[in-house]
């Protein structure tokens, strides 16, 4: 079904699109009389079927709530249910088509000659979004193709006009000297966005070829010349002469001057590969093109297969250097995907960086529209990995998500997972195996934290229209599931895992064997089974159609008599896994809606997970022996054969007996030089962690060694250490009862970064010990470790800063920072030097670790706070070639963590009755006064950084953004007083979106914003910003902020709770009764569960008139899209009860009074009577006879309205005025 679209005029100045859409329809029913198309927020100016004028019916559900009829019938937010009924057809999973084109007389479906040549597009879409994909899947493709070829095609042409769109397409207007007019499409909400600017059959499953003719101004100067009828504006001459560029799907065919207007040009693009309307888009603006393929060095990948695919990048003027720095790897990614998986499904790949778009990627066929927030200069370090991963995933989506689409919504995880998996394989090639495995392990850890009370990824809990941000958990879990699937397929024997399945799948899509390019979970499972010859039913049931994860408790002991390692593996997730997920403000609205609907929020825990598991035992001779066991039951007992037949090697020699060896090891660890083997004669060298081993270093660093008894115990052990799931075949939590010295050996001798990370996690959860701190600080100081492991070691050392160990963890962290980043024998930091990226990340992490140190009262010690403040105060970056904005942000965050650790004062009974009138603590220092002074000094320093960021802006104002977030957190804790005026200045439209949203978040998290009369104007300003802001990203995020802020206020008590007593010295004088303590505990309990949070929100905000008016104005405004209104409806459902009333507006003459008489049976008679003449004051109008009415019913002479209750059984109301 080809579709030709001509946008006759795209006016960037007036935000208008005028054009027509011509669709070739292949009939399947000879009685077809009309065509249903999707189209919203536009006007249809004409329709033609096979060249003849046709009639049409057009009902845009997205604007049904803006009509006068609706606003007259529903006037308050309590009538939001009427709004929901109007919006229901638009937010339904299956759209019925707003535009109906009726066939004119003389046009009918005709059969074609069965002996004629088959149509070139006879193998088009196998099923449509407008029919059930599951039903259509049962239709044989051959029969469907024959049916298509049975009738002649019909051409439908729809002429349309769109003005000021709010969905689907964005116009960015010029509002500063550094901004250029441009326009682009975006695909959020998912599956219904293209029909917001083009009449079509929207969705994922109606695929066709496309042709676009787009008419635009030739240059920047022509934009306003067209608008002002030839009058030029005063613009920069260079900018005025910039050409307007069109980036669109398909291949550029021609670019010609407009036939009747020389200031315009027409650009034609053709895409022959069938794609869905969801993956159709364009961008128009004064973009500058960069050929990324030309960045490849001449000797790069010499002798390897090189892809001929071109990669281009477009960006607004002045961003070319950032484009090159950001995208320099893209040609490598293209070559990798083509070589490893399949040829590129389209002609070229184009990246277009635009302003004000969402952070979510917008993949189209051969085109990707990306936010310019992802561009970064060469001096910024922290954006390297996240942006590289983001753009790589964007390129991978061309194969899986655009060329291959999910067959239904339950198969969405397959395309998302394949996209993430193949991008991960490239990142492993680009950045190394350690980086890949470490981040994969962190992702698996995040899944174990989040996969509680969630639906399976194979049956996602989707809300329509789909917001792409709600798919984040699927994006996290699906690639990891495919990774463990690959490991299991590889272990099955003779299989290459997904490295064979994925190329075959892409080949099926390219050759047409994959019907309609739609991939289902069942098809993917069958393909994997065919390639590996392994049944995967249990795997898909557990990891795709099931949720949760296993928790293993493993016991082991060595049986010397039988020479066996006896192991027991028990699954305990049914006992230890939480039933409900913890409350979080991000998901508050969605969870609250489920609660109000009566849906269960508890997770169904699978008692048993099955599958192979690899156990690796490092025996006494140092050889690792792998054993694959099959887990089938909740408890598995194993007897693993021991292989070493001779006496165990000595663990280590005391290296202090060979000082030359210590020097060699330490030098190699710190500098990376080679080691003279002669110096190590007689020393069993551990591969890692053999630093700081001389007597002087051990004394200086306060290190300890294993005792003689512990070393003897190590000698008696039969093996060095063992690992369970050593090949990363499970997403799970594992607890092994092996001794601590085995974990130490694993950390020092196992080269696998995942094994090292498991050891760090063990030491983080174990009871603190000086020897553990020694192991961790040696890990921190050994450069041979992967930098992520060193960062984790630094964060773990903070847990060893306790008085029982003489604060050894604090000493080790300070000593490490001093040696690496300070002047000799001083804690004054040297000037920044970030050329070594691994050292830079350590320099950021150690202050954050120090901020987590707490003393016995739960406070961060004052010397640590002063040290962190000095790091910020004396930070010097003048001679550093890299930006320190993220480092400064990390220092400010560390300081805020140290401040926010101040505990609330709670009543406690101290039987020391010694009065200390100076209010000094046991240490003799005025602790409260010192802490208060430090908070004041810290805020002065943070304000200084914020002012400096205003004068010399950092990258995307990162410093100011973090500063505002810190103030929000400290205000919520009651440490500082919130200042709305300070935050409001950062909400201006000319600032970065992240900074503006941080400021709005801080403002909207203050409870008094909604309740205090003096803050009404600020609240109205927030609502007006949502209505009038030019950025769709800001509007959508601020609507989400309303729900998130309500959740945050209900879950956390704003500011410090009132003091329960007032003591002098260490003596407590109780002033309040125990009732206040009980109320405080009740309040804490309510805030800890969803039911209580919903009650708190209703109690505090349901009767706030400004909030009611603002929400209703947002709901009924045409300035917001469908997605924003669906979110607002969810918020209203939490805050307000539905009132089945209807407001009737009546004119009341002054000489008459109204009398309402209840006639019974749901009938009310209202009539006028003359007022009695009397000199006495006029009495109030009589009450309505009949049943008593509520406070919001009756007659209101001021507003001249009558409130009438709507009967629940829909009895007809006869209202007559005499």
**Per the principal axes of the C-alpha atoms, what is the gross shape?**
globular
Content of β-strand: 15-25%
How much helical structure, as a percent, in the residues? 25-40%
Number of helices: 39
Look at the structure and give the mean pLDDT: 83
- Structural class comes to alpha+beta
Number-wise, the strands total: 34
Catalogue the unreliable spans. 117-148, 229-233, 647-659, 674-685, 904-925, 1057-1072, 1183-1201, 1206-1218
Structure overview:
The protein has 1218 residues and is of the alpha+beta class. Helix content is 37%, strand content 17%. The protein has an eight-stranded mixed sheet. Strands 16-17-18-20-19 form a five-stranded mixed sheet, with helices on one face. Helix 2 runs antiparallel to helix 39 (1122-1135), helix 8 (330-340) crosses helix 9 (384-396) and helix 27 (862-873) packs antiparallel against helix 28 (885-900). It is globular.
């Amino acid at each position: 079904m080809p579709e030709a679209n001509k946008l006759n005029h795209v006016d960037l100045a007036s935000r208008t699109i005028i054009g027509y859409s011509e669709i070739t329809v292949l009939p399947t029913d000879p009685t077809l009389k009309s065509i249903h198309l999707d189209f919203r927020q536009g006007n249809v100016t004409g329709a033609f079927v096979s060249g003849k004028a046709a009639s049409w019916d057009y009902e845009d559900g997205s604007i049904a709530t803006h009509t006068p009829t609706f606003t007259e019938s529903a006037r308050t937010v309590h009538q939001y249910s009427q709004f929901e009924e109007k919006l229901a057809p638009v937010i339904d999973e299956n759209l019925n088509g707003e535009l109906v084109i009726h066939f004119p007389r003389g046009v009918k479906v005709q059969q074609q000659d069965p002996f004629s040549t088959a149509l070139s597009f006879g193998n088009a879409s196998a099923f449509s979004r407008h029919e059930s994909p599951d039903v259509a899947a049962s239709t044989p493709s051959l029969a469907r193709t024959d049916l298509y070829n049975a009738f002649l095609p019909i051409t439908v042409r729809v002429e349309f006009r769109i003005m000021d769109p709010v969905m689907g397409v964005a116009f960015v207007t010029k509002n500063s000297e550094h901004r250029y007019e441009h326009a682009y499409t975006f695909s959020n909400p998912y599956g219904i966005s293209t029909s917001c600017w083009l009449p079509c059959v929207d969705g994922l499953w109606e695929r066709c070829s496309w042709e676009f003719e787009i008419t635009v101004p030739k240059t920047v100067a022509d934009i306003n010349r067209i608008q002002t009828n030839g009058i030029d504006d005063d613009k920069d001459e260079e900018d005025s002469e910039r050409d307007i560029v069109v980036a669109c799907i398909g291949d550029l065919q021609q670019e010609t001057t407009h036939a009747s207007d020389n200031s315009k040009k027409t650009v034609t693009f053709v895409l022959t590969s069938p794609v869905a309307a969801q993956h159709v888009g364009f961008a128009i603006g004064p973009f500058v093109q960069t050929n990324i393929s030309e960045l490849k060095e001449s000797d790069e990948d010499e002798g390897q297969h090189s892809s001929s695919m071109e990669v281009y990048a477009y960006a607004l003027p002045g961003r070319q250097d950032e484009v090159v720095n950001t995208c320099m790897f893209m040609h490598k990614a293209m070559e990798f995907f083509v070589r490893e998986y399949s040829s590129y499904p389209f002609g070229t790949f184009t990246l277009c960086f635009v302003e004000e778009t969402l952070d979510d990627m917008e993949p189209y066929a051969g085109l990707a529209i990306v936010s310019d927030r992802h561009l970064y200069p060469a001096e910024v370090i922290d954006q390297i990995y996240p942006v590289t991963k983001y753009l790589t995933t964007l390129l991978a989506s061309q194969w899986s998500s655009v060329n291959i689409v999910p067959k239904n919504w339950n198969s969405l995880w397959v395309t998302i997972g394949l996209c993430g998996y193949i991008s991960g394989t490239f990142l492993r090639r680009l950045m190394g195996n350690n980086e890949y495995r470490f981040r994969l392990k962190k992702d698996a850890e995040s899944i174990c934290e989040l996969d509680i009370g969630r639906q399976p990824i194979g049956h996602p809990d989707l809300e329509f229209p789909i917001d792409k941000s709600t798919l984040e958990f699927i994006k996290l879990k699906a690639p990891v599931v495919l990774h463990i699937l690959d490991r299991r397929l590889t272990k099955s024997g003779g299989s290459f895992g997904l490295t064979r399945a994925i190329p075959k799948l892409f080949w099926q899509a390219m050759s047409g064997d994959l019907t309609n390019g739609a991939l289902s979970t069942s098809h993917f499972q069958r393909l994997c089974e065919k390639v590996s010859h392994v049944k995967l039913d249990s795997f898909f049931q557990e990891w795709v159609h099931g949720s949760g994860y296993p928790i293993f408790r493993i016991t082991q002991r060595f049986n010397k008599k039988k020479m066996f390692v006896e192991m027991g593996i028990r699954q305990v997730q049914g006992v230890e896994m939480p039933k409900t997920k913890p409350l979080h403000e991000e998901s508050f609205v969605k969870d609250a809606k489920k609660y109000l609907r009566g849906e269960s929020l508890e997770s169904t825990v699978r008692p048993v997970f099955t599958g192979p598991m690899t156990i690796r035992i490092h025996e006494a001779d140092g050889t690792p022996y792998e054993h694959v066991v099959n887990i089938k039951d909740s408890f598995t007992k194993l007897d693993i054969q021991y292989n070493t037949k001779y006496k165990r090697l000595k663990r280590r020699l005391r290296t202090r007996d060979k000082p030359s060896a210590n020097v060699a090891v330490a030098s190699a660890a710190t500098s990376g030089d080679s080691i003279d083997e002669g110096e190590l004669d007689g020393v069993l060298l551990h591969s890692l962690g053999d630093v700081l081993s001389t007597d002087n270093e051990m004394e200086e660093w306060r290190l300890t060694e294993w005792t003689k008894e512990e070393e003897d115990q190590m000698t008696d052990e039969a093996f060095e250490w063992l690992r369970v799931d050593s090949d990363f075949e499970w997403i799970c939590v594992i607890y092994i009862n092996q001794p601590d010295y085995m974990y130490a050996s694993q950390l020092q001798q196992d080269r696998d970064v995942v094994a090292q990370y498991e050891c760090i996690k063990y030491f983080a959860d174990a009871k603190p010990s000086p020897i553990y701190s020694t192991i961790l600080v040696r890990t921190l100081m050994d450069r041979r470790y992967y930098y992520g492991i060193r960062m984790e070691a630094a964060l773990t050392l903070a847990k060893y800063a306790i008085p029982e160990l003489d604060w050894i963890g604090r000493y080790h962290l300070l000593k490490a920072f001093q040696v690496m980043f300070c002047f000799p024998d001083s804690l004054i930091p040297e000037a920044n030097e970030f050329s070594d990226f691994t050292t830079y990340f350590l320099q950021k992490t150690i202050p954050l670790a120090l901020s987590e140190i707490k003393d016995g009262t739960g406070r961060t010690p004052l010397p640590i706070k002063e040290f962190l403040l000095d790091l910020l105060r004396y930070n010097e970056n003048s001679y550093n070639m890299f930006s320190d904005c993220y480092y400064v942000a990390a220092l400010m965050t560390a300081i805020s963590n140290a401040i926010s650790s101040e505990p609330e004062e709670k009543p406690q009974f101290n039987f020391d009755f010694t009065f200390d009138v100076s209010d000094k603590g046991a240490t003799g220092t005025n602790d409260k006064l010192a802490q208060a002074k430090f908070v004041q000094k810290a805020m002065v320093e943070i304000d200084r950084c914020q002012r400096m960021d205003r004068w010399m802006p950092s990258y995307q104002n990162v410093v100011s953004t973090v500063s505002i977030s810190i103030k929000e957190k400290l205000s919520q804790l009651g440490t500082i007083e919130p200042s709305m005026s300070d935050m409001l200045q950062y909400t201006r439209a000319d600032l970065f979106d992240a900074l503006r949203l941080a400021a709005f978040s801080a403002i909207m998290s203050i409870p008094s914003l909604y309740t205090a009369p003096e803050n009404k104007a600020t609240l109205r300003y927030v609502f007006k910003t949502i209505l009038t802001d030019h950025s769709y990203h800001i509007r959508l995020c601020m609507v989400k902020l309303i729900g998130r802020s309500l959740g945050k206020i209900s879950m956390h008590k704003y500011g410090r709770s009132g003091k329960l007593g007032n003591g002098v010295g260490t003596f407590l004088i109780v002033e309040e009764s125990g009732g206040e303590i009980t109320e405080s505990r009740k309040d804490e309990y309510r805030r800890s569960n969803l039911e209580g949070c919903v009650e708190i929100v209703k109690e505090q905000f349901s009767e706030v008139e400004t909030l009611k008016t603002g929400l209703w104005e947002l709901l009924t405004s045409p300035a917001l899209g469908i997605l924003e209104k669906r979110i607002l409806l969810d918020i209203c459902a939490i805050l307000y009860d539905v009132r089945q009333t209807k407001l009737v507006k009546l004119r009341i003459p002054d000489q008459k009074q109204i009398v309402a008489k209840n006639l019974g049976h749901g009938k009310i008679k209202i009539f006028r009577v003359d007022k009695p003449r009397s000199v006495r004051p006029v009495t109030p109008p009589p009450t309505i006879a009949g049943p008593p009415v509520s406070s919001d019913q009756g007659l209101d002479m001021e507003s001249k309205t009558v409130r009438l209750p709507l009967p629940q059984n829909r009895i007809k109301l006869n209202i007559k005025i005499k």
